[in-house]
Design goal:
Layout: E1 5-8, E2 17-22, E3 35-38, H1 48-56, E4 63-72, H2 79-96, E5 100-105, H3 108-117, E6 124-126, H4 133-140, E7 145-148, H5 157-165, E8 171-173, H6 182-193, H7 197-211
Parallel strand pairs: 1-2, 2-3, 3-4, 4-5, 5-6, 6-7, 7-8
Helix pairs in contact: 1-2, 4-5, 6-7
Length: about 220
Amino acid sequence: MLCFDVHTHHFRADNRSIFNLILKEDGSMIPEMYFSSGIHPWYITDKWKKILEDHFRENYKQRVAIGETGIDMLKGTDLKLQELVFMAHIEWALNYSMPLVIHSVRSSQRIIEILRAMNFQFPVVIHGFRQSNELAKKFLSEGYYLSLGVYVNYAGQKLTEAIKYIPLDRILIESDDFDGDCCEIYHQIAHIKGISADELDNVVLMNVKNCFRIIDGKLA
């Protein structure tokens, strides 16, 4: 099994994961591996515009997505500022024709409204999805991918029902801060879906290639 990890905060010396680079004022070391990059809504400062411009003016060949970015209604800076920074990320994603990796906390409707208003036509990944079937339906109706992580190991009834509902061609899998084997997450999701881990692995790999087009052709 390849067990591709679409969102991790741990450096790995392989081509089986996408490192999430959180942009900050003191600069960021650019990894050699595939990466996504953006200012997390928790870490927005008054220098956000310069941080984005300094980073995104370079077209790194190993960058495969913009983000994570988004809106967090429970934590972070002023919501209007979060929206402004989110929209700036969307502009960069449009410039580079790249997917967006989204951090959404109690902000699903606003996220959808902004993406619609800006006519964003590239893939959208809802990172760390662990909500209800109803919210899954809402995101899926927009054509978004839902990225599932270590929370599936402790899934209650709501998340379990959501995982059963999510179509296989909309599932991505991530480890986020978890430093264990991402294949553990694959096995748990496969168990909930009632399929083999190998079958899930094959489907997710195809989803990775469809979502992150730069990666297509570089994976076995």
